[in-house]
Amino acid sequence: MKGIFFQQKGVTAIVAAFILLCSALAKAQTQPADDIVEIARGLNGLCRGSSGDTPHLDLICDLRDKAFRAATKRGYCYGKKGQFGAQMEWHRCTNDSLR
User: Fold this and answer.
1) What's the farthest any 2 CA atoms get from each other in the chain?
2) Of 15, 39, 63, 75, which one has the greatest count of Cβ atoms within 10 A?
3) Rounded to two decimals, what is the model's pTM?
4) How far apart are CA 42 and CA 66, in angstroms?
5) What residues pair up with 91 in beta bridges, in sequence order?
6) DSSP result, 32-57
């Protein structure tokens, strides 16, 4: 998977991201956390890398937020206290993790 669907922008990427996210959330008990983190990473790139006039930007960012929550429920967090955006990365949650 590794970002294949996230290299394109537009409706195709949104639909693909939505399908992947729904699939991951539906299989939350058996879906590997790595897949959910990869989906969250791709959606985050689309959300952060798009301008305000990008069609469906609200949907992309909403899907990203849902993917972040799903990853957090699986024990993965994005960023630690005191870090700024460029320093943040996915990791197993600890006491210092942002949630």
Assistant:
1) 38
2) 39
3) 0.66
4) 13
5) 77
6) -HHHHHHHHHHHHHHHHTS-TTSTTH
Q: How confident is the model at residue 9 (pLDDT cuts 50, 70, 90)?
A: low
Q: Per the structure block, which two tokens stand in for 16?
A: 């693909």
Q: Where would I find the beta strands (DSSP E) of the chain? A: 76-78, 90-92
Q: DSSP letter for 1, please.
A: -
What value does the mean pLDDT take over residues 31-54?
Answer: 79
For tokens 């959330």, the residue is 25
CA distances (Å), 26 to each of 7, 11, 21, 39, 91, in order?
24, 22, 8, 14, 22
Residues 6+ apart with CB under 8 A from 85: 79
